[in-house]
Amino acid sequence: MTASAARTLGEFGAPFAVRCFHPIGVLLYKDSEGAYWTDPMWLKDLRLHLQYLPSTTVASPCRHGAPPDGWERIELDQFPGLELLELPYAESSIRGILALPSLIRGLARGRRGYQLIYAGFVEWPLPYGWFMRLLMPKSAVFYSFIESSFWRLTPGLPSTLRQKVRALVTERLNAAALRRCDLAFITQDGYRSLLTSEKTEIVKTAPSWLDDEWLVSAAEADELAEQRLLEPRLRVLFAGRVEREKGIEILLRASAEVGSDAMALTVLGDGSAREAMVALAEELGCAVSWADPVPYGQPFLAQLRAADLLVVPSLSDEQPRVVFDAMSQGLAVLASSTRGLTDVLDADTSLLVKSGDVGELSDSLRWASEHKDECVHMGRLSRDRVTSWTHSGAHRVRYGAFQAVLGGSARPQR
Q: Distance between CA 11 and CA 6 in Å, rounded?
């Protein structure tokens, strides 16, 4: 257990004496020795969840074989109350539909003595949340997390009739299923439109993975500020998936207008659009340093500390976690004024521009290169603000919300 997790456990108080059924689309791998492996970031989140909901059954799609590099083993002996239930893994939509009977049988396990049940809406090809309330006893408490709306169309990008129909149907079915939830955690106000039932308790929380000890101290923030002021050019960083909805094309066009004498752009990430964006940068004469992704944690935070400005030119209404990471390192942010981003950013801590507007973005980049001292000041203020938006802080919010809906279902710690 990390020091951050240990502190968080002490702040939670008594764990809840309920059985939790948590079906989720996060993939598991089962190796030849019968051990389970999963994505390290999700396992990080699960460890904190188990501090206050120790009796939890996680139902996830499972593949048999060697896990991908970098995945972590789930040490079941450390979590005596954790049970893993394998759901069918589907490599295609057709196989997913064919596996529905097996999936429903697995999800129906939640009928067996669980008092707290999770309904998710990001699973593929069909969200588990669409089935949960129909399959489960009405006496259970249902909860959900809404931290992404990937089914929604991205403004400014072309969409086919099929995509439009899928977005409309998914939005309505998700909203219908969410009306049956007792508790919904949201990461931005833009998701409130999905929650129209008065019975649903809505709790806003941050989608942050930050450990408390990752935040730079006040003294370190001051030292980073001094170092940034010494750099002759504005060091601009884009960190994320290289996809069109992330606004990478808008950034390249804006950077080309500003020029390499004023700024140095680094793109840290990979994605389906990277090859096309490399070609576009060459066509525009835009000088870019293309870097592959680095592991999340100190290697990634070091990249943020080596920059003067993080640019998040998103076209969609998502709320990238990288914003919280940048703030933790005292790094100023230049971002699109979308609903998800303006929930956490304002004029004191960031520069906000109209989404998809090359001219506004280039003007702001040019201003930042000429007023680096003000950018540094914004980053310094953002570091002070993010202290309550850590991973453990998000779980403290969850704990308080569960305490409210579960009432006295907590037991003394042993």
A: 9
